Predict the 3D structure of the following.
Amino acid sequence: MKQEQEFMIEKYFSSRFPPLHSWFDEDTIAIGWGTNVVVAGVKYVQQEPPAIPIKRIEVLHRLKLSNFHVAGVSFTIQPQTATDKKERKWKEIVIFGIKLFENKQKGGDNFDDTASGISGISTYSMAPSVMALQIKPTQQVSIELLLALPTDVDNYIIAAEDEISMKQSEQMFLRQFHLGAMAEDGVYYLLGPRELIEARPCSAEDRISWFLDNEFYVEATNCALAHREELHETSVSEVGKKLVEKLIADGNFDSAASYLPVICGRHKDEWEYYVGEFEKHGHVLKLVPFLPQKQPQLEPECYEYVLIAALYSKASLFLKLILLLPSDLYRIGAVIQRTMNKLQDPNLAKEDRIYLLQALARLYAHERQFDKALQLYLTLKDSGIFAFIRQYHLFKAVKGNIVQLVGINSDLAIRLILDHEGEFVDSGTGTIVTQLSGIPKVQMEYLNQLMQRGEGLEHSNLLIRLYAEHAAERLLPFLRKIDSYDIHRAIEVCKKFKLQPELVFLLGRSGNKQ
């Protein structure tokens, strides 16, 4: 920062560090000056009332390069596909310039001729020309070409760094070096005092190798994925494995798991290897969103690792997995046994016990042990029993449990009975009406819905009594609507419960004017 401040107040700053720019596209410009590169975008602000939009500049990226002086700036092209046409045109920033670095040896024996020729220049003494860089005696210089990949506004990584050998050039004069480019064709021209060098981007495998050597595992994997068809000496799997191993070593299991689908693909052996690794480290549940169920389908033990881990750590997740995972992926009997063992735990929370019993009911269903599954649902008073009955067509299996079903949810029970009445009983509705006699309000609702469908009219007298006793406001409309009841019995009921409007109606219908 101090050195930058000195540059900013220096009288000859622009002479030593000529500003330069490059348009990446019609709305994006990069400006290089000194040891900084700024990428800015042109934004159009609409005025009110409608008029010509105002152009404003927004800084997209700021790159502060340590001891690297910019002589030229350009960009590489972003690979385009049919689905990402809206992405930016450029990918990386190409930077050409002079780099200063400390000599690792105290002596000057390893200096080349150029370095030794300028090593006597002190930072605090004026150079032979105001255009020359100020270089300390302990520093060496090199001409380099960088590829910088921005990660956000103020951060970036160096994706590639190549030293350029230019003979007979005095490397203290920044103005003597220039960068020209035909970025769309991937051709870059590096101009020195006496040389013109054509440079092209390195191969995908070279780039991947550089990323790995510098421990940029994510970038190496992304590069391998983007250039999968160009790889001959390595593969996405090999590169990705190094990334996953690094993430596991760092304890970042979430990220490691997220990369497995693209790294393992349909390779069953690789999936099973990583399932074992995650299980060994106690993080196999991180694989739940990514574990394949087919193409490839793994060995049953892999899915059982996940289920058992959920069973002993998160009962709600265990239930969800039992409901979602196809039962042919794992050994049902083994999971049932482990679940029953867990239910013996005296310290098991009540809520977790319910989750496990619900899961056990589903496991019994997978094994076609429907009697055990139904008994668990009835014991739990779980409203999921209605969907379960429908799914497996267990209507006759519960025809003796109608009262218990009503106790779980009367509305769902009545709907179930009405929708599948013929499957609940062998003949007529009498059996159901009899079972509901102990819960008259439910019996009334069942008969009401039954008669709305034009059925069960033989129970009209019973429904009149139930209306009179529990829902008198519904009786008169019912009496007016149908005539399949015994009018004399209906009159007696109305007298008993002192329902005057209903009694008047019935007397009028019967012809009795008293």
